[in-house]
Amino acid sequence: MFKKSDRHSQLDMFSSPTEYFRDFKKKKYLKDDSWHNQFRNHVVMRVDESIFSVLYADGKGAPTLPYAFWSA
């Protein structure tokens, strides 16, 4: 079953990647102008997920994970 992603979804409290970083690396990871954050905002978040809905059966089955989840 196809499930459109929430544009502002957050990770749960047990899977935050920032808990693995300290000081400089953490600041670098969280900066808005870092390449990975720009890529997520300008490329990943613009992917039209609805075009992939035909690949999934309606009704029974587990919902898909949004594309943004795999690239975050």
Summarize the structure in words.
With 72 residues, the protein is an all-alpha fold. It has one domain. Helix content is 29%, strand content 0%. The longest helix has 8 residues. It is elongated, with a radius of gyration of 15 Å. The mean pLDDT is 76.
Topology diagram in text:
Layout: H1 23-30, H2 35-42, H3 67-71
Largest sheet: none
β-sheet strand percentage: under 5%
Sketch the topology as an H/E string, one letter per element. HHH
Average residue-wise pLDDT = 76
**Count of helical stretches:** 3
- Which term fits the overall shape? elongated
Helix content: 25-40%
Residue stretches low in confidence (pLDDT < 50, at least 5 long) are none
* Total beta-strand segments: 0
**Amino-to-carboxy terminus distance:** 22 Å
Radius of gyration: 15 Å
Structural class: mainly alpha
Q: Which characteristics define this entry?
A:
mainly alpha, 29% helix
Task: Please provide a brief summary of the model.
The chain has 3 helices and no strands. The chain has helices at 23-30, 35-42, 67-71. The radius of gyration is 15 Å and the shape is elongated.
